[in-house]
Each structure stands twice: as structure tokens, then as C-alpha cells.
């Protein structure tokens, strides 16, 4: 499945990050970006948007990251889409746990625009080369 | 005593020599003339030898040998006595007298040998053999004046008698010490001397009586035989007189008729002679023979045919050839009757003196039997008639007479020229010893004798001996009985005396050395005893009070009056304020005990506890009083002090915030303070007496008894001494964290443990809250920070288009500030994580070269900013260490950025790695900065430590970098340190064990050092432990079960540390094979990654540490304790 990364769905309840992240990924990374403010919104938007990669915040009210991931996997349209967790509590054992849940990778907050773009590109390269299931 | 013993030894030796001589005589005929006169030499030799052996063994204290010798000697003598009783005397047996003597010696020896065991009561017995043997020897030495020597000799030999005497003296000498146990002759001696003397007198008297009786019996017999011999002689004289008459008449007839032939022819003469012969019954016939010896005349017939010739008869030849006138002939068988006869013959001479014939009267020997019968002396007596030359003429009892001659018998040997009358002792042909009376008739040339066997003579004496001997034995038995009873009485007496003496001595000692004052008075109160303690207590000397005062002297008069009033009231009778006050209560109580105030001689007062007892005689009458006073002042003071000290201690214990629980060596709770009650939500009464494990949560709850056992056995403690965090359990079962510090105390030899408990639940809660707070705050800060920094970064990156230059300057400053804020938050979180042990390390081997390269790469940009050059000086790029690579790079980067910050612009920071001795790698980060100020060095690694507040602003650091660095290095098993010099620069260094260098063995085998086996597949752990323990013990490492097995089976180890999870199996397999140089199982400490232990650990496992809970430092601490204990026990 050698294809370029085009669409990224960014899910985070922190709205102050929405603009900055969108600008970073669109202007610096050159990706097409859709934003969701909650797990439910992500589940609703994803099938229509058809993202290649989903960046999913772990700590969200009502439906947290892992739950949202489970729901995404349960929908046929979103089931195969790779998901990268974003968390502020970057503790090693949690990262292990998230990987075990099926996350392609884990990025830690706070992220810096250049670094974020580099990380996303690196993750996509790994996914494409098949080193991430 | 010494001289006595010397004598005894000499006696024993002499007895042995005598025994040897006796035995030699038995074997060697050459000695017979000297020793051969007495029979039974083997018996004597044996008895003498046994007597000597018994004595020697007694002297040497060999009781068993002495008793064996005594028993042997006694049984042989007794056997000989019994044999004698049954069979009479015999040449092969020792005489009954000697046997009896030796029996007594043997009994005495036995008594001596048993003396220690049975109390010493041999003495009377010891006297007996002495008396017996002395009597024998005396009789022997005084020769025959009293006793027939032959008889004595047959009874006992001089050797036996001398031996007996010697043995008797020795026995007596040995007995002497028992008579004078205290060096003087006591009542035992008096008793023994009296009874022994009495026995001696009794035995001597008996001996004298039987001796006298013996002598008189023998004398009587001698008199009898002499008289009998006289009578016989007289009788013979008369018998031969009649033969003389008859032959004279016949001779007259021959002369008257003118010749022999004429007589032969004269019938008238024949009738006359025959008639005369008929009147003499003992003359058989009268013969006349002619010169040729032909019998021509015979009173038995006329005319007598000339057919019988007597020319062959001796008497005829003597008359014819020797010209004898008269002759008494030997006994012959009559030629006419064949009966034994003897002749009385006379020579017939003619005018020229030539022999013309002989006249012979033939006397019937049997005629004398009648005579002998008439004066029969007794059983076995023999009398007889002999010619001077010993020819027998007639003998009693049909003894042969014809041709018999007794001249060869010793008794008749001296007949020629002997006295008229002789008394002899000897034997006839029958060999029986006899008393013989001999009467010689020199006129007739005959010898008459009468004899009586000695046995017949002594038959009456023997009866006397038997009867008196029986009486003597009865008397001696009574004496022995008296002796036994007397000794028992003496012993009882002595025992009583000794007891009363020791009691008196004991009493004296007790009274004089008693710590309490003891004062005795008479009934009236006058003091009779005032002991040393009383003198010390009251200041009075005993001689100032004894017999001169009453206890009132040292009592407080006011108190005595007060007590008198009390007693008067309670007893209902007036009690005078005097001595009566002290004893009034004793009428109805055995002891009156109360507190009084004594007044010392110097006037000072002391409180005492006084017990008064009445002293009563055996009728129960009061004879005095005894007071025992104990000084209470010291006790009062001590009690006060103790109460105060207890109160103070109680106050401390009760009010201390920490819980204090004491337990005994079995783990039973002894006490609990209020704080402990609060902590465990339990009251002391609910816990005291129960096992302390009730206050602990698992795993300690079920293992606590095991900890105690292990500690008491090995001295290796789980918690003792050091404060540990453990899970406690409240009475309601809820668990809570507590800090427990246990101290071992030894109270009067009893081990006790004091546990100080601090409830950590509150502290934990606060810590958790703090951690959560920090975490939350950090998280909450991060999101807005992300937005701020991201936005500013986007603006500054220019992707959003250009902004005015002034705005851009501000956004640049804002971005830098936000970055610094992010770093600060990250550092705070790191510090918290390291502090809480939450850092997850991904430990793996990594090369030094890779680490340095990445660290340099990561910090290059930063260094460039400061215009500082980074320089790598990697001396060992290929060496690997076990660390978390990212964290190690963080460590190095921290140090590098630190160095960069403090380096002058244009300076150089060197990052080096070198190999160190002992298998370590040292990373150094060296700058040429200002160095670290002296006063700052000690707090360099503390949080928020910065040399001055301005630093933070100037250098942009958070003040947490070095704290984090140190925490990480130590988490990974490394050591961090620094060298610095003011004005020259600073070098930080970080040391880690080099993997490939991890030695299995640190040095060559040295028997003087303790050796420890460390089985561990993790090289870092092994290396660290060997570094920690290397100066205490020699550490020998092994990576696998197989390797460890090989070492344990070939070398001794003083102890071992064993990891359980090894690549080729479970380390527990090795434990039983670890032995020390003496082959004993060596103590083993298990250091394992898992809690999961086998149910039954080998007995030499002394401690178990789990890696996640205990560090290498903890392990090293335990091992040092172990080594010190081994050192101490060695």
C-alpha cells in the first residue's frame, strides 16, 4: 500500500490547539486536515472524510482515546485506519499499553510544529514500509 | 602412717619371697632337706602368695585385686578345713591349723579391702590371725617343753607360722589408721581394743586350757605305760624264777644221780620232775640233752625216745661253745608241740668243767597273752617282752614273735646301757605313734614294754577341744556382733556430732555474714547477740550492748510510746512502753513484723523493717527473742527513684508520637504504648500476650516467626536496626503502610525486641496527592504551553507569511520563554518520577562509542549557540555497558550542556571514556570553566541547587539537571562524582561496570581471606557486588548453574549469594553444594528477581532478598554482617 499521506483527522477536546495544529499540518506538512473535538465527533466525521491517519488525544471527557479507538475499529469504514495517540502523560508503561491497544505510535504533548511534522512523516513511513502492523 | 605402710609393703614382699621358696622346694628335690620336712608345700606357697598379694593390693588401693586374693585364700583354706573334717589329716594337705590361720588373714584382708565401701570395722578380726599365728610360733620356738615338737611340726611349718605372723602384723598395721581417723585413738579404737583384747584373752585362755589338758592327758598315758611295763617286768621275773627253780631241781638230780644218762634212766626222778613241772602252768616241758645235743630226758614222757636233737638250736651252741651258764633263748617253734616257745636253759658241767649236757625249760609264749589281757591299757595298746638284743619273746595281740627283732625301731635303739625305766614316743611296726614305757631287767637280760597310741591317749582331750572350741566360737561370734553394734552406735554418734558441729558453724557463718542486722535477747530483753550487720547499721559495737542493754537503746522512744498506746488499745490490757512493746504480739503470732525507726549511736535515724520471733525450748517455753532488722533507707530511696524513673519513662513512652511495641524472643507482644494503640486501632489488652504477627499484613504476617528464628540463629535481620517500610495491619484487618524500626535489647539475659512504628498512611496520602498535583499541574500547563509554543513557532517559522520585524522580535522572545517553561516542567516531572521510583528503565547492553557519539550529536547545536567546541576522547568505544541508552544519553547530554553553559565562549568541552581498574568504564565531561566553589560542592546534586540565584537567568537552567542526572545514574547502577579546581575547570565523571570486563574472579585464591561465591547471570549486578564486597571478602563469580556447581564442588566458600533465575536452571540447585573448608554447609543468601520461592528452602539459606525491593547495597550490608559474624565465631 504504497501511497502518500494525504488526509489526517486530528481529535482533541482542547480547542485552543485546533487552529495551531491545523495550520502546522496544512502549512508545514502539506496535509489535508479535519478536526474533531470529541470521540463522538470523530466517529461521525471519519467515514465521510476518509482519513489516512488519525491523531487521537488520550484524555478527553465523555469518551477517552482508547474507547474512541475501539469504536473506530468497530466501524468498517474506519477499522483499517492507523491511529496515533497523543498524550501529555508520557509514561513508559502507558505508552506500552497504548501500543498494545493497537495504536501505530504515541506522540507526547507538548509538541512543537517542526517536530510534529517530522514525527508524523516518520510514523507514516514506518506504516507504509510495514514495520507497524 | 608412712612407716606403717613401709612395714606392710615389706611384709607383703617377704610373704611373696616365702611363697617362692616354698614353691621352689616343691619343684626342686635339692631343697628337700631344708624345706622338705613339712608336707603340703604347694598349699603353703599359694596361701603365702595370696596373703602377700592381698596386702600389696590393699596398700596400692587396688580393691578388686585385694578382694580377689582374699577370696581365693579364704576359699582354699576353708576347703582344706572342710576336707580335714571329712577325711582327716593327710600328707598332701596343709594342716587345719595353718588353714585356719590363713583363713583369718584372708578375712582380715577382705575387711581391709572393703573398708572404704563398708565403713571400717575390721579391727577385732585383724587381731585374730595375730593371736593364732603368734601362738603357733611361740610353741614352735619354745620347743618341746609344752608340746611334742613332732606334733607341732606336723601341724604347721615354721614358714607358715612366720608368714602368718607377718601377714597378721601387716593387717594390724593397716587397720591402725581406721582406729585413729583424726590422728588420735577415738571411741572406735576403745571399742575395738576392748573387744579385740577380750577376744585375745578368750582365745589365749582356750589355748591354755586345751594345752594343759593335752599335757595332762599325755602325762597320764605315760604314767600308765610305765606302770604297765613295770608290772610286766615283775611278772616275767616271777615266771623265770619258777623256770630257774625247775631247771635247778633237774640239775641237782643230774648231779645226784651222777650224770645225764643216769637221769634218763631214773623213772623216779622223772616222776618227781614231771610233778614239779605240772605245778608251773607256763612251762611246757623240761628237757635234758646230752653233750651231743640229743634229748635224753623229757618231762612229757618216760622213757623218752632218743629221736630229737637240739644241737642246731642257738642256745645249745652258746652253752657248748661260749660256756654260758644260764640263757634265755629267742622264741622258737617247739619241736614237740609246734607252738611258739622260748627257752630258759642251764649248762651241765662235769668236774673238769666240760659240758656234759644242758637242761632246758620250754616256756609257752602264749601264756603271756593272758597277762597282757589282764592289764590292757586301752584301744590299740601293745605290750611285749623282748630280749636285750631286741628279739621278741612275747607280744600282745597274737603278734608274730618267732624270728622277730625290734632292735631297729628308734624307740628301742638305745636299750643298751639305757636307764632302768624309759619313756619313749615313737612307732612300732604298725606305724602308729605311741607313748611307750620300757622296763629293762638287766639281771634277766629282758626288756618289758607297754605302749598306748597317742590318739587313744588324746581321745578325751579331743572331746574337750571340741566342746571348749564350740564355746569359744560362740563367744567370738557374740564379740563380733557386739563390735558391729558398737560401731553402728559410734557411727551414729559421730554423724550426729558432725551434723551439729556443721550446723553450729553454718549458723555462726550465717549470723556473722548476714546482710541483715540480727539481734537476740533473753526473755527480759537483755541483748545476747548483736551481729556484724547490726554493728554497721546502728554504730554500736557488740560488746557495748551484749549483756548490757535492751533493744530500747536504739529505738525511737516516741515511737515506742506510740506503739505501747496502740497495743494497749488493741490488746485490751496495759502495755508498758518498754521492751514488751516488741514482743507483746508474739503471744498469739509466730512472728511480729513491722517498720520501726532506729536511732543510731550518732543520733541519726534510719527506717528499718523488723521481724521479731520468739525462741522456744523443746517444751515450747519462751527462752528469748530474735530480731532481724533490714535497713529500709536504701530501699526507700531506690523505690522512690525507680518510681520516678518509671513515671518519666512512662510519660515519654505514652506521649511519644511513634508507636512502641515490645515483643519477646518468641514474638509475643509484651507492651504497647498509646501511640501504638492508636496506630493499630487496638488496645494494649487486646494485643499483649498474643503473637505480634497479628499486627502485620502479608507476607510478614505469616513469615514473622520465621524471621525471628532466622535472626536468632544467623544474626541476619530483615528489619532489625534499620527502619523499613512494611505493611501493618490494624485490628479490624485493614492494611496500612508503616515504617518499622526494630531494636534488639538484652534485659537481664532475656532478648527482647523494641519496635518503633510510624504510621505512613498519612504521609503516603500526602505524597500521592503531591505527585498527583504535580502531574496534574504539569499536564494542565502543557496543553496551553503547547498551543503557545506551537503558535509562536509557526509564526516564527514564516510559513504563515511575514510579520513586522518588531512583532517578530517579541514572538521570538516568547517562543524561547515557552521552551524554557517546557523544559522546567519536564525536569520537575522527571525529578518526581525518579523520586517515586516510577522511572521505567530499558536496560540493555550498549557500546560506549555509540553513547558518546549520540550525546555529542544531541548537544552540538546547543554548544554552537554558546560558541563552545565539543571534543570526543573515547578511549574504549567497543566496550559495552548495561544501561538504558536514552537515559544514559540524557545523563551525558545534561552534563555536556552544563559544561557548555559554564565554559567561556570559544572554550572546549571534552567528553572522554576510559577503562578503569576493576573492570569499570569512566565517562568524563571536562570543562575549563570557573570550577565549583568550595561551599557549593556538598549540595551540588540537590534539587534547585544553583551557585547563585542569578545563574538561572544567565544560564537558562532549571536547577534540576544534576539532581536528575545523579538519580538516573544510580538507578542504572552507576556512580557519579566530580573533580573541580577553582579557576581551572571541572570534570564530572560517571562510572559503570564494563560488561566484557566483568571478571568472574577478582584475585588468586588466598586461604586467609573469606571467600564468597556469587552466582549471577547479570554482569552488572555481579560487578557491583564485587566492588562493594571486594575489600571484605574474595568474591568468586559464576554465570550459570553448571559453572557454579563446578566451583562449589571443587572449592570451599564461606558463604554465597545465589540468583535463582539462571540461564541453565534454578540457582536453588547449587545451594546444598556450597560448603566451607570444614565441610559444613555455608550460609547462602538468595538474591532473586522473583518472590516465588520453593516451599522448603535448604537449611543453609539464611536470608532471601527480592531484587525489586532490596538494592545491592542492602545485600552488601547483610553480607558484611555475615562475614563479621563468621570472623567473630572463628
Task: Describe the model.
Chain A has 133 residues and is α/β, with parallel strands linked by helices. Chain A contains 5 helices and 5 strands; from the N terminus they run E-H-E-H-E-H-E-H-E-H. Chain A has a 5-stranded parallel beta sheet, with helices on both faces. The model of chain A has no long low-confidence stretch (mean pLDDT 85). The radius of gyration of chain A is 13 Å and the shape is globular. With 1130 residues, chain B is of the alpha+beta class. Chain B is 49% helix and 20% strand. Chain B has 34 helices and 35 strands. In chain B, the strands form 8 sheets. In chain B, strands 1, 2, 3, 4, 5 and 6 form a 6-stranded antiparallel beta sheet that branches. In chain B, strand 14 and strand 15 (605-616) form a beta hairpin. The longest helix of chain B has 71 residues, at 187-257. Chain B is elongated, with a radius of gyration of 68 Å. The A-B interface holds A 14, 16-17, 19-21, 23-24, 27-28, 59, 88-89, 91-93, 109-114, 116 and B 775, 778-779, 782-787, 789-791, 793-794, 797, 799-800, 822, 833, 838-840, 842.
In brief:
With 133 residues, chain A is α/β, with parallel strands linked by helices.
Uncertain residue ranges of chain A:
none
Any low-confidence stretches of chain B, pLDDT <50, length ≥5? Answer: 117-122, 140-147, 949-954, 997-1004
Radius of gyration of chain A: 13 Å
Summarize the largest interface: chains and residue counts.
A-B, 23 and 23 residues
Beta strand % of chain B: 15-25%
Give the biggest sheet of chain A. Answer: 5 strands, parallel
Please outline the major beta sheet of chain B. Answer: 6 strands, antiparallel
DSSP strand tally of chain A: 5
How many angstroms does the end-to-end distance of chain B come to?
54 Å
Strand element count of chain B: 35
Q: Structural class, judged by helices and strands of chain A? A: alpha/beta
Oligomer state equals heterodimer
- The outline of chain B comes out as elongated
Amino acid at each position: 500500500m504504497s501511497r502518500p499521506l494525504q488526509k489526517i483527522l486530528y481529535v482533541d477536546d482542547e480547542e485552543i490547539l485546533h487552529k495551531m495544529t491545523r495550520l502546522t499540518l496544512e502549512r508545514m506538512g502539506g496535509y489535508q486536515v479535519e478536526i474533531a473535538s470529541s470521540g463522538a465527533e470523530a466517529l461521525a466525521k471519519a467515514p465521510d472524510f476518509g482519513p489516512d491517519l488519525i491523531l487521537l488525544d488520550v484524555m478527553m471527557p465523555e469518551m477517552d482515546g482508547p474507547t474512541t479507538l475501539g469504536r473506530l475499529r468497530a466501524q468498517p469504514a474506519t477499522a483499517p485506519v492507523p491511529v496515533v495517540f497523543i498524550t501529555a502523560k508520557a509514561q513508559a508503561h502507558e505508552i506500552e499499553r497504548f501500543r498494545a491497544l493497537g495504536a501505530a505510535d504515541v506522540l507526547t504533548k507538548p509538541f512543537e510544529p517542526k517536530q510534529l511534522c517530522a514525527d508524523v512523516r516518520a510514523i507514516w513511513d514506518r506504516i507504509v514500509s510495514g514495520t507497524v502492523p | 602412717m608412712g612407716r606403717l605402710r613401709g612395714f606392710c609393703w615389706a611384709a607383703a614382699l617377704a610373704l611373696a619371697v616365702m611363697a617362692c621358696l616354698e614353691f621352689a622346694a616343691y619343684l626342686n628335690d635339692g631343697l628337700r632337706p631344708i624345706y622338705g620336712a613339712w608336707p603340703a608345700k604347694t598349699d603353703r606357697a599359694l596361701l603365702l602368695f595370696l596373703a602377700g598379694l592381698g596386702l600389696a593390693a590393699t596398700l596400692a588401693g587396688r580393691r578388686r585385686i585385694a578382694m580377689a586374693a582374699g577370696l581365693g585364700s579364704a576359699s582354699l583354706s576353708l576347703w582344706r578345713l572342710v576336707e580335714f573334717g571329712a577325711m582327716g589329716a593327710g600328707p598332701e594337705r596343709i594342716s587345719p591349723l595353718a588353714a585356719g590361720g590363713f583363713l583369718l588373714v584372708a578375712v582380715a584382708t577382705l575387711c581391709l579391702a572393703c573398708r572404704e565401701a563398708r565403713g571400717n570395722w575390721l579391727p577385732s578380726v585383724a587381731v585374730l590371725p595375730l593371736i593364732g599365728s603368734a601362738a603357733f610360733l611361740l610353741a614352735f620356738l619354745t620347743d618341746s617343753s609344752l608340746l611334742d615338737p613332732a606334733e607341732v611340726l606336723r601341724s604347721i611349718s615354721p614358714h607358715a607360722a612366720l608368714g602368718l605372723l607377718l601377714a597378721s602384723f601387716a593387717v594390724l598395721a593397716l587397720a591402725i589408721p581406721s582406729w585413729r581417723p583424726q590422728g588420735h585413738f577415738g571411741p572406735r579404737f576403745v571399742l575395738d581394743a576392748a573387744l579385740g583384747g577380750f577376744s585375745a584373752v578368750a582365745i589365749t585362755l582356750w589355748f591354755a586350757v586345751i594345752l594343759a589338758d593335752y599335757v595332762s592327758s599325755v602325762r597320764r598315758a605315760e604314767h600308765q605305760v610305765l606302770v604297765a611295763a613295770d608290772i610286766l617286768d615283775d611278772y616275767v621275773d616271777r615266771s623265770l624264777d619258777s623256770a630257774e627253780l625247775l631247771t635247778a631241781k633237774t640239775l641237782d638230780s643230774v648231779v645226784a644221780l651222777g650224770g645225764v644218762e643216769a637221769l634218763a634212766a631214773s623213772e623216779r626222778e622223772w616222776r618227781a620232775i614231771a610233778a614239779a613241772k605240772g605245778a608251773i602252768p607256763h612251762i611246757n616241758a623240761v628237757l635234758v640233752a646230752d653233750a651231743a645235743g640229743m634229748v635224753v630226758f623229757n618231762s612229757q614222757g618216760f622213757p623218752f625216745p632218743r629221736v630229737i636233737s637240739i644241737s642246731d638250736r642257738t642256745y645249745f651252741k652258746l652253752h657248748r661253745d661260749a660256756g654260758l651258764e644260764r640263757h634265755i633263748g629267742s622264741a622258737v617253734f617247739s619241736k614237740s608241740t609246734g607252738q611258739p616257745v622260748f627257752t630258759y636253759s642251764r649248762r651241765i658241767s662235769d668236774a673238769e668243767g666240760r659240758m656234759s649236757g644242758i637242761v632246758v625249760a620250754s616256756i609257752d609264749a602264749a601264756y603271756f597273752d593272758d597277762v597282757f589281757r589282764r592289764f590292757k591299757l586301752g584301744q590299740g595298746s601293745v605290750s611285749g617282752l623282748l630280749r636285750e638284743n631286741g628279739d621278741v619273746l612275747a607280744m600282745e595281740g597274737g603278734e608274730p614273735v618267732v624270728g622277730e627283732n625290734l632292735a631297729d625301731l628308734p624307740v628301742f635303739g638305745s636299750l643298751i646301757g639305757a636307764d632302768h625305766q624309759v619313756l619313749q614316743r615313737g612307732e612300732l611296726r604298725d606305724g602308729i605313734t605311741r607313748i611307750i614305757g620300757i622296763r629293762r631287767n638287766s639281771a634277766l637280760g629282758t626288756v618289758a614294754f607297754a605302749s598306748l597310741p597317742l590318739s587313744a591317749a588324746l581321745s578325751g582331750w579331743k572331746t574337750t577341744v571340741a566342746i571348749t572350741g564350740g564355746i569359744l566360737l560362740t563367744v567370738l561370734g557374740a564379740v563380733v556382733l557386739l563390735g558391729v553394734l558398737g560401731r553402728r552406735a559410734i557411727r551414729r554418734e559421730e554423724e550426729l556430732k558432725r551434723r551439729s558441729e556443721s550446723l553450729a558453724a553454718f549458723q555462726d557463718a550465717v549470723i556473722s555474714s548476714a546482710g541483715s542486722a540480727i539481734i537476740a535477747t533473753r526473755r527480759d530483753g537483755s541483748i545476747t547477740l548483736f551481729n556484724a550487720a547490726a554493728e554497721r547499721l546502728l554504730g554500736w559495737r557488740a560488746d557495748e550492748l551484749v549483756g548490757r542493754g535492751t533493744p530500747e537503746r536504739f529505738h525511737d522512744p516516741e515511737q515506742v510510746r506510740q506503739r505501747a498506746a496502740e497495743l494497749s488499745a488493741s490488746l485490751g490490757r496495759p502495755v508498758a512502753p518498754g521492751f514488751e512493746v516488741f514482743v507483746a504480739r508474739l503471744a498469739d503470732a509466730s512472728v511480729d513484723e513491722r517498720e520501726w525507726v532506729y536511732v543510731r549511736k550518732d543520733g541519726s535515724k534510719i527506717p528499718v523493717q523488723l521481724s521479731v520471733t520468739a525462741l522456744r525450748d523443746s517444751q515450747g517455753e519462751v527462752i528469748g527473742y530474735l530480731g532481724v532488722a533490714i535497713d529500709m533507707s536504701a530501699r526507700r530511696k531506690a523505690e522512690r527513684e525507680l518510681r520516678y524513673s518509671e513515671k518519666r519513662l512512662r510519660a515519654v513512652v505514652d506521649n511519644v508520637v511513634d508507636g512502641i511495641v515490645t515483643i519477646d524472643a518468641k514474638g509475643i507482644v509484651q507492651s504497647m504504648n498509646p501511640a501504638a494503640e492508636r496506630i493499630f486501632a487496638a488496645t494494649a489488652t487486646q494485643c499483649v500476650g498474643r503473637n505480634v504477627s497479628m499486627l502485620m499484613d502479608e507476607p510478614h504476617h505469616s513469615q514473622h516467626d520465621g524471621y525471628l528464628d532466622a535472626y536468632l540463629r544467623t544474626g541476619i535481620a530483615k528489619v532489625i536496626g534499620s527502619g523499613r517500610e512494611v505493611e501493618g495491619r490494624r485490628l479490624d484487618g485493614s492494611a496500612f503502610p508503616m515504617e518499622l524500626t526494630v531494636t534488639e535489647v538484652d534485659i537481664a539475659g532475656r532478648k527482647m525486641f523494641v519496635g518503633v512504628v510510624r504510621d505512613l498512611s498519612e504521609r503516603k496520602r500526602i505524597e500521592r496527592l503531591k505527585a498527583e498535583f504535580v502531574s496534574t499541574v504539569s499536564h494542565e500547563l502543557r496543553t496551553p504551553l503547547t498551543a503557545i509554543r506551537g503558535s509562536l513557532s509557526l509564526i516564527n517559522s514564516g510559513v504563515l507569511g511575514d510579520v513586522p520585524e518588531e512583532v517578530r522580535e517579541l514572538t521570538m522572545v516568547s517562543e524561547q520563554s515557552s521552551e524554557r517553561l517546557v523544559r522546567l516542567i519536564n525536569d520537575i516531572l522527571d525529578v518526581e518520577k525518579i523520586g517515586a521510583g516510577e522511572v521505567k528503565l530499558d536496560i540493555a547492553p550498549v557500546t560506549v562509542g555509540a553513547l558518546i557519539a549520540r550525546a555529542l550529536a544531541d548537544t552540538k547545536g546547543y554548544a554552537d549557540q554558546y560558541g563552545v567546541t565539543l571534543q570526543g576522547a573515547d578511549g574504549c568505544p567497543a566496550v559495552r555497558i548495561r544501561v538504558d541508552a536514552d537515559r544514559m544519553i540524557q545523563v551525558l547530554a545534561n552534563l555536556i550542556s552544563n559544561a557548555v553553559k559554564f565554559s567561556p565562549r570559544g572554550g572546549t568541552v571534552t567528553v572522554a571514556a576510559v577503562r578503569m581498574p576493576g573492570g569499570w568504564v569512566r565517562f568524563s565531561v571536562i570543562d575549563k570553566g570557573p570550577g565549583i566553589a568550595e561551599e557549593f560542592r556538598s549540595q551540588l546534586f540537590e534539587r534547585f541547587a544553583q551557585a547563585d540565584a542569578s545563574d538561572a537567568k544567565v544560564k537558562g537552567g532549571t536547577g534540576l539537571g544534576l539532581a536528575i542526572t545523579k538519580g538516573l545514574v544510580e538507578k542504572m547502577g552507576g556512580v557519579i562524582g566530580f573533580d573541580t579546581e577553582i579557576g581551572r575547570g571541572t570534570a564530572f565523571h560517571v562510572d559503570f561496570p564494563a560488561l566484557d570486563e566483568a571478571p568472574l574472579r577478582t584475585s588468586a585464591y588466598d586461604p586467609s581471606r573469606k571467600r564468597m561465591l556469587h552466582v549471577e547471570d547479570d554482569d552488572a549486578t555481579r560487578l557491583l557486588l564485587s566492588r562493594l564486597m571486594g575489600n571484605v571478602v574474595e568474591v568468586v563469580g559464576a554465570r550459570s548453574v553448571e559453572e557454579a556447581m563446578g566451583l562449589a564442588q571443587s572449592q570451599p566458600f564461606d558463604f554465597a549469594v545465589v540468583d535463582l533465575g539462571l540461564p541453565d536452571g534454578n540457582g536453588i540447585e547449587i545451594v546444598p553444594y556450597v560448603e566451607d573448608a570444614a565441610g559444613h554447609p555455608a550460609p547462602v543468601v538468595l538474591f532473586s528477581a522473583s518472590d516465588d520461592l520453593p516451599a522448603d528452602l535448604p537449611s543453609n539459606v539464611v536470608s532471601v532478598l527480592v531484587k525489586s525491593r532490596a538494592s545491592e547495597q542492602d545485600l552488601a550490608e547483610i553480607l558484611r554482617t555475615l562475614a563479621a559474624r563468621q570472623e567473630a565465631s572463628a
